[in-house]
Amino acid sequence: MAQKPESAKGFVPQKGRWQVERSFAWLNFFRRLSKDYERTTASAVAFIQLAFISIILARMPYIIFKHALNGTNGAIPSGVFIEKEIAEQWIAENQFTGLLTKYPVNEGLYDWAVANGYFTPKREDHKSSYFKQTFTCASLEHYHYENGKQD
Fold this sequence. Notes:
Residues 13-57 form the Transposase DDE domain. The protein has helices at residues 17-27, 41-59, 61-64, 84-94, 109-115, 129-133, and strands at residues 65-71, 79-81, 98-104, 142-146, 149-150. It is of the alpha+beta class and 151 residues long.
């Protein structure tokens, strides 16, 4: 632990301490961690690790995924966004009704679903170009909006 120099008086900021403080602050977003519910130290550590994994994953997807809004009667997306927050603001401002879906980038949806175990081709036509270009996947993260508000 860093010690304050003897010549220093009052508060002296410690190098790197803000990173630790910020990390503890992030844990406040996880209700289960607000109280000591766990019976063992191992399970408490596991839930803290899960919280940090969740924090990391929440920041990563917007680099590798894009959100697209398909309006109620729209055949193609009416907007594509890298950040969900910007998409939601646009949806709210325009009072759109539709589905905001998180799509993988630089990878076809069919290939993504197969690689992640969400779909397994069982018939020969499942490998055809027609099937692949019309493929949809309910396993994508998606949100429903009605008049600009999330359902």
